[in-house]
């Protein structure tokens, strides 16, 4: 599970954390009210769209990374 856990930590760092920071900053600046259902719907819709883009970028980067070859010697 260590490899999977490292991947999910990376996903969280590249996808979840930036979105959370943005929403917390919006709330701190009184741009987002968690008690307003319209705000919740809008942030959910935008957040899911942004997460989808960030996650796809992560997948593309992961699939195109260089993997060091194991050499026996």
TrEMBL record:
Domain of life: Eukaryota
Protein name according to UniProt: Integrase core domain-containing protein
Organism, scientific name: Plectus sambesii
Integrase core domain boundaries: 1-68
């Amino acid at each position: 599970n260590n490899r999977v856990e490292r991947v999910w930590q990376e996903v969280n760092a590249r996808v979840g954390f930036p979105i959370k920071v943005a929403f917390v900053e919006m709330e701190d600046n009184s741009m987002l009210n968690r008690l307003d259902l319209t705000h919740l719907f809008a942030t959910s819709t935008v957040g899911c769209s942004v997460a989808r883009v960030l996650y796809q970028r992560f997948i593309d980067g992961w699939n195109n990374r260089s993997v060091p070859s194991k050499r026996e010697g």
